[in-house]
UniProtKB/TrEMBL annotation:
GO terms for molecular function: ATP binding; kinase activity. It comes from the Bacteria. This is ABC1 atypical kinase-like domain-containing protein. One of its GO terms (biological process) is ubiquinone biosynthetic process. The chain crosses the membrane at residues 504-522. It comes from Terrihabitans soli.
């Protein structure tokens, strides 16, 4: 019960900070009815007024005020415009995950404890932090490699960060469950599943060995790719709380003057960035899902070097084929083909019209052809795509939404390098190569060979499958005769769970209202 009241307090504080920063100012009350409308009006009574009012993006300001977990939540939701809308997602992109560094002494203790050796035996030099975020901070250090001093980057996890994020995630889950319960139209967006995805993402970021593995995997995938690479990993100096990797001396991709001074071709870098990202997604099914300019550098050889793989995306064979065929259809302006790909993949319900869906896709694709990136609003295009998903009752696919959002970020960075860039023409060689390789004769032979192997494995499981079917049939027959067993304790447990959930919703609501009333009286 104590933990429930702690959650109520966190939810109430969140509601108050949202109201104070003017988040509810952005809501259109014409679409709101009943008690919810009254509740929003009460919340707006505590809004900042006059010069103190939050300007620009109030949601981003509120999340920054609430702390690191909420900043991470905002950054994650910026990758999910299907949930929060394209405008809010764009505002959340302004969130800066820059925190005050924790003390040098604590960082050194964490490194020595995690790697089970004195710091002096691990690094010949260990400098102060050069960057600090909500989950970890980075130090520049040096290692002695057979008498040669090599610079390295050392990422150190913040102390106690896992416990704090676990605590705040409970509040996120509580809010998501109440939203699903009291707002049925939003269930299509699966808020609880969104928090599940955030929890998995944060769990990966909390174990720096997993980020090292992601860098290693991408390094293997891209070792023969022209113009793209990731830093090498020092596995001997890497553990759950510490990641040591190659120090990158390069020009940030958003430092255009620095890139020109170093003799780099900016339009060529823009095309290279888009083509590299599409290779990773379609060929490898594994891509960097946080490719903002702060994570991208250009080294002296002209390679784009990507760092910070805390957030990655993965596509299965079905999703890779879907992406390639969809892009190819848009490039060729074959909207019927694109529509059929959606239906074959099961992303659009079978009771919808292929022809009508193709027409909707045409309305998205045609305005982008023959126009430069400078003339095309990717935010507007995204908004239209999400409106189409609602019209045709498409279920949210988190992996595709992350891919789509990352593609928009990559396109934005590439456009900053070359305002005249045409994303379709830049994508065409990579997409066509994939189509030729995997949907041509060689790909069909490989698919047939893989299918034969899977069939052979399936045949070996047939005897066990028959036994399971016989047992299931016997159990069903027994239940038909005797009925479904449901003892008294089970019934009591179900009743108590439902009562507890109902009390939680009502108490959370009254806690928020009571706290707001108190703030109004004290103003």
């Amino acid at each position: 019960m104590l933990s429930e009241f702690a959650q109520f307090g966190r939810i109430a504080r969140t509601g108050y900070v949202f109201a104070r920063e003017g988040v509810f100012r952005e809501l259109d009350l014409h679409e709101v009815r009943g008690p919810l409308k009254l509740g929003i009006r009460l919340l707006r009574l505590v809004e900042r007024r006059g010069p103190a009012a939050t300007k620009g993006a109030p949601l981003a300001a509120a999340l920054e005020r609430l702390g690191p977990s909420y900043v991470k939540l905002g950054q994650f939701l910026a990758t999910r415009p299907d949930v929060v809308g394209a405008v809010i997602a764009r505002d959340l992109e302004t969130l800066q995950d820059r925190m005050a560094p924790f003390p040098q002494k604590i960082a050194e203790e964490i490194v020595a404890r995690s790697l089970e050796r004195p710091l002096a035996q691990l690094y010949s030099e260990f400098g102060p932090p050069v960057a600090a975020a909500s989950i970890a901070q980075v130090h520049k250090a040096e290692v002695d490699d057979f008498g040669q001093k090599l610079p390295v980057a050392v990422k150190v996890l913040r102390p106690d960060v896992a416990r704090r994020f676990a605590r705040d995630l409970k509040a996120f889950y509580a809010i998501a469950r109440q939203v699903e319960r009291f707002n049925p139209p939003v269930r299509r967006l699966r808020p609880v599943a969104v928090v599940d995805t955030l929890a998995r993402s944060v769990a990966f970021e909390m174990d720096l060995r997993l980020e090292a593995a992601a860098l290693s995997e991408m390094g293997e995938n891209t070792k023969n790719d022209p113009g793209f690479r990731v830093p090498g990993i020092d596995w001997a100096r890497t553990a759950k709380d510490v990641l040591t990797l190659e120090w990158i001396d390069g020009v940030p991709l958003n430092d255009h003057e620095g890139l020109r001074a170093a003799g780099h071709d900016l339009p060529a870098l823009g095309r290279l960035l888009i083509q590299s990202f599409l290779r990773h997604a379609m060929r490898d099914g594994f891509f960097h899902a946080d490719m903002h300019p702060g994570n991208l550098f250009v080294d002296a050889a002209g390679n784009i070097v990507a760092v910070d793989l805390g957030i990655t995306g993965r596509l299965g064979p079905k999703e890779k084929r879907f992406l390639a065929e969809m892009l190819y259809g848009f490039i060729e302006r074959d909207y019927r083909r694109v529509a059929e790909v959606h239906f074959r993949a099961g992303y659009v319900p079978a009771d919808q019209s292929v022809e009508e869906f193709a027409r909707a896709l045409r309305s998205v694709g045609e305005p982008t052809h023959g126009r430069t990136a400078q003339e095309v609003s990717m935010a507007r295009l995204l908004t239209q795509l999400f409106e189409i998903t609602e019209i045709f009752h498409m279920q949210t696919r988190p992996e595709l939404i992350m891919l789509q959002k990352t593609m928009v970020v990559v396109e934005g960075v590439a456009r900053s390098l070359d305002p005249k860039l045409d994303m379709w023409s830049a994508a065409e060689p990579v997409v066509r190569d994939w189509i030729t390789r995997y949907l041509g004769p060689i790909g069909k032979i490989e698919d047939a060979a893989e299918g034969a192997v899977e069939l052979g494995l399936a045949l070996t499981e047939v005897p066990e499958l028959i036994q399971r079917t016989q047992r299931l049939a016997a159990n069903l027959e027994d239940m038909t005769v005797r009925g479904f067993p449901l003892d008294a304790q089970t019934v009591r447990n179900i009743g108590e769970a439902e009562a507890k959930r109902s009390r939680f919703g009502h108490l959370a609501l009254w806690a928020i209202v009571g706290l707001l009333a108190l703030f109004i009286v004290l103003r």
